Amino acid sequence: MLQITVTHKGQSKAKQIPANLQQLNWSRYLKAVKATRAETVKENAVLSALTDIPQTAIGNMRPEHYNLMVNLCSFFWSDEPQIMEAIPDEVAAVEIGLMSWEDMINARRSLKTASESKVTEYHAGAEIVRIYTGIEITDETPTAKALPLVNFFLEQFENWSKTYEALSKDEPDENEIAAGIDNINAFEHFATLDTLCSGNPLLYDDMLRVEAVNIYTKLLLNKTTNDYATKLREYQDFTDNQTETHQTAEA
C-alpha cells in the first residue's frame, strides 16, 4: 500500500492509498459506496472516503500526485473482477429461509434501519452476517473478506423479497385505514407473531424458532385465501345484483 504525505491546515500527515479491496478496510468502503449514491456524485468525495484524505487537501494536490492517487484507487470503479476471499463452506451452506423466523426479523430490521438512516444496504450487511453466521465484520476488516459475505446474504434477501413480493404489496383499503389499521401495523412483526400464536404469549418463543420459509408460506397462504374469499364475495354480490335487476325488469 502506497503511503503519501498530505498537508492540510498547516499539518502534514501520512496517508495510505489502497490499490485493491484487500488493502481497503470495510469502514472506508462503506463511506465510498455512500458517496457514490449521493444525488451529485463527486469524484473527490469518493476519493476522500477511500483514502481518508480531506477533499480540500485533495483539491490542493499537485497534478502528478492526484493522478497517481486516482490510478491507484481506480479498482473501486473497475468492472474487472476483483480478488476476493472465498466464503467459508459453512457459510455457503446457509439458506436464510431455513433459518429461524427470529433471525429473519432481526435481519430485516437491520435493513429497514439502514434505509431509514439513508445509508446503503451494505451498512446493514455486517449485522446480517453476524446474525446468520456469528462472524464479526469490523471497521478494519478487509473489504475483500467482508464484501463476499455481505453480498452472499444481500442477494438471498433480494431473491426472498421477490418470492414473497405479494406480502409487501398487501396495502390496506380505505375501510381498514379509516378503522385505524396503522395502529396495528405499528406493532410490526409482533402483531403477526401474536396472531399466529392465537394470542398465547407462551407460544411466542417456539414460533420464533420456526423456519422462516414456513412462516412466510403460511402468511402467503392466508393472504391468498383471504383474497379469494373477498373476490368470491364480490362475485356473488355482483351475480345477486344481476339477478335482482333481471327480476325487476321482468316485473
Describe this structure in words.
With 251 residues, this protein is mainly alpha-helical. The protein folds into 3 domains: 2-76, no CATH class; 89-163, no CATH class; 174-250, no CATH class. Helices cover 62% and strands 6% of the residues. It contains 14 helices and 2 strands, in the order ββαααααααααααααα. It has helices spanning 26-36, 43-51, 55-59, 63-72, 89-92, 101-116, 122-133, 143-163, 165-168, 174-179, 181-185, 189-196, 204-208, 212-250, and strands spanning 2-8, 11-17. The chain has a two-stranded antiparallel sheet. Strand 1 (2-8) and strand 2 (11-17) form a beta hairpin. Helix 1 runs antiparallel to helix 2 (43-51), helix 6 (101-116) runs antiparallel to helix 7 and helix 7 packs across helix 8 (143-163). The radius of gyration is 26 Å and the shape is elongated. The termini are far apart. The mean pLDDT is 89.
